[in-house]
User: Which sequence fits this backbone?
């Protein structure tokens, strides 16, 4: 009876299927609500609240900045200039790495909800992106504060640096979507990714100036993370660097990964959810 009534309603001339824009808006709203739900639960029993997001970056980053300035890792830069150079690179790197890891962390925390309620899996990506952008806004405050303390002038290209951040986020999501379905089955990805981060961090010139020759020069040259992080950093703190097209090329590389990664995510995550439901 109810099925017949539903069919009659859909066949009625007055019935209009939701437009693609309406469906997309609903997914964004749901993803935002999932973010708020998880955010409140995550920091509910903490005294400092979301300030822990800052500590997570500052705790390993500040010592590296201080040591790097003493060992001349910034080339001829004075200590105050190197602090801006290294910290801004670390912040942009962290935005990228948060984009890689947040989808799997959000999915793990919502796995029971996923097994009990059916909704668009794109909402998980929206929730993860909301986390990244929230953390990223706090990270950018660190750059602004450091530039004010060191009296570093804001270049005219700073707007380009800000506009590059969505591209950095999408590049991280391209990699992160490949790992999400596996986190339902293997906890190795959950434990292993934090160990990979410090290794990848040093493959790009984030805390140091890229050398003119040698193995590290070759590694930096062929590493897309070099252009994904270093060029927007220059836009934010210094200006154009001469090889700015490298950022666009790095986006193309990650864009080629994004499309198949998104398809894999859509096809594989229902299998992972089903496995959780029967666990």
Assistant:
């Amino acid at each position: 009876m109810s099925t017949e009534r539903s069919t009659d309603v859909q066949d009625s001339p007055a019935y209009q299927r939701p437009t693609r824009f309406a469906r997309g808006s609903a997914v964004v709203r749901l993803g935002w609500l999932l973010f708020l739900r998880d955010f409140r639960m995550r920091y509910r029993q903490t005294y400092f609240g979301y300030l822990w997001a800052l500590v997570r970056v500052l705790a390993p980053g500040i010592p590296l900045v201080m040591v790097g300035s003493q060992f001349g890792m910034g080339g001829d830069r004075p200590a105050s200039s190197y602090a801006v150079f290294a910290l801004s690179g670390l912040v942009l790197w962290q935005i990228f790495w948060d984009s890689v890891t947040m989808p799997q962390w959000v999915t793990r925390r919502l796995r029971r909800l996923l097994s009990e309620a059916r909704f668009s899996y794109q909402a998980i990506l929206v929730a993860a992106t909301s986390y990244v952008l929230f953390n990223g806004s706090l990270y950018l405050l660190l750059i602004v504060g450091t530039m004010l303390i060191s009296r570093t002038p804001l270049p005219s290209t700073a707007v380009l640096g800000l506009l590059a951040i969505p591209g950095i986020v999408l590049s991280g999501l391209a990699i992160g979507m490949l790992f999400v379905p596996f986190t339902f089955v293997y906890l190795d990805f959950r434990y292993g990714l934090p160990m990979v981060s410090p290794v990848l961090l040093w493959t790009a010139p984030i805390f140091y100036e890229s050398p003119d020759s040698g193995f590290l020069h070759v590694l930096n040259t062929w590493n897309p993370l070099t252009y994904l992080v270093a060029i927007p950093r220059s836009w934010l703190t210094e200006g154009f660097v001469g090889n700015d097209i490298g950022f666009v090329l790095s986006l193309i590389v990650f864009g080629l990964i994004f499309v198949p990664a998104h398809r894999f995510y859509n096809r594989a995550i229902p299998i992972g959810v089903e496995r959780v439901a029967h666990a």
